[in-house]
Amino acid sequence: MTKQPKLPPVFISHGSPMLAIDAGASIPAWIALAEALPRPRAVLAVSAHWTTTSPAVSAAATPETVHDFYGFPPALYDIRYPAPGALFLVDEVAELVPGIGVDEQRGLDHGAWMPLRWMYPQANVPVIQLAVMPNQSPEFHFRLGQQIAPLLSTGTLILASGGLVHNLRDLVFDAPENSAKPYAREFCDWFVDRLESRDLPALLDYRRQAPNAALAHPTEEHLLPVFVALGAAGATYTLRTVYQGFTLGTLAMDCFAFDAN
């Protein structure tokens, strides 16, 4: 692997697929983040929308744009994000994570292409995906992040994409922007505080320690990407808040970069 300017791992709460065509309040922050970062040679997207039972990486040379959602306006299904794959990065990930599965057919789901469409609109940065495993613990994902951390020094952007609070069963469709149900805000405040203080034991045990954890995340797949970013960040990171806010009452849209010290 060739040394390049080191990039911070990033966590983005990607929100509704509608943000691809109807830019919300978080989009300018995503764009500004991409402009402020050194241009990556490739992106490793850790998306909540690709779940497996064991570690896996995608390896399509020309990844398809996957529209993995239902009931949205036709214009959303017309979107294509034609970024090339990054087969060289597949090999590097496989060196760091021995025995990892390789999926040569997997395209880019909206957890990957939707934020990347705003961050790198020319679709000229190669992209592959890393799966999350809901059958595995936050600590397992943290260790996975530690394994892939050397990629940051090669100009690879580790883009973890999920949601800091994600309860689709409890959305409030007429909620004013940045209003939130009390349980969602309490969970979000607790989690951000623990990230800022680098309280790793509490974060890894969030399911028992965080207020309203089961309400904030009825299922865990949208929070697991943050643990990959956290593992890649190293023990002395500084949390940079790129955006904070809520939409639809129960979707936290927080975005963070884990800057190295």
- What order do the strands of the largest sheet run in, or round the barrel if closed? 5-2-6-1-11-8
The class by helix and strand makeup works out as alpha/beta
State the major sheet.
Answer: 6 strands, mixed
**In whole angstroms, how far apart are the ends?**
22 Å
- Low-confidence parts lasting 5 or more residues at pLDDT below 50? none
CATH topology: Protocatechuate 4,5-dioxygenase, Chain B
* CATH superfamily annotation: LigB-like
Structural shape? globular
Number of helices: 10
| Multimerization state | single chain
What Rg do the Cα atoms give?
Answer: 17 Å
Number of domain units? 1
CATH architecture: 3-Layer(aba) Sandwich
Q: Which CATH C-level class is it?
A: Alpha Beta
What does the model show?
Helix content is about 30%, strand content about 20%. α5 packs across α10 (about 225-235). The chain has one domain: Protocatechuate 4,5-dioxygenase, Chain B (3-Layer(aba) Sandwich), CATH 3.40.830. It has a six-stranded mixed sheet, sandwiched between helices. It has a three-stranded antiparallel sheet with strand order 7-10-9. The chain has about 260 residues and is of the alpha/beta class.
